[in-house]
Amino acid sequence: MFVSGNKFAGANTAILVGLDFGNNGHHDSLQELSQLASSAALTVLAVVEGKRARPDPTTYVGSGKLSEIERIVLQVEPGVVIFNHELSPAQQRNLSVHLQCNVVDRTSLILDIFAQRAKSHEGKLQVELAQLEHLSTRLVRGWTHLERQKGGIGLRGPGETQLETDRRLIRKRVRFLKEKLEALQRQRNVQRKARQRKDILAVSIVGYTNAGKSTLFNELTRSKTYAADQLFATLDTTTRKLFLGVNQSTVISDTVGFIRELPHTLVAAFRATLEETVQADILLHVIDASNPNREEQIIEVNKILKEIGADTVPQILIFNKIDLIDLTKSGKSCMRDEYGRIFQIRLSAKTGDGIELVRQALLEAILSHSEAINKKNLAIDPLGDRNFAHNFIEQTE
Question: Which of 32, 60, 80, 224 is 20 to 30 A (C-alpha) from 183?
Answer without folding.
Answer: 224
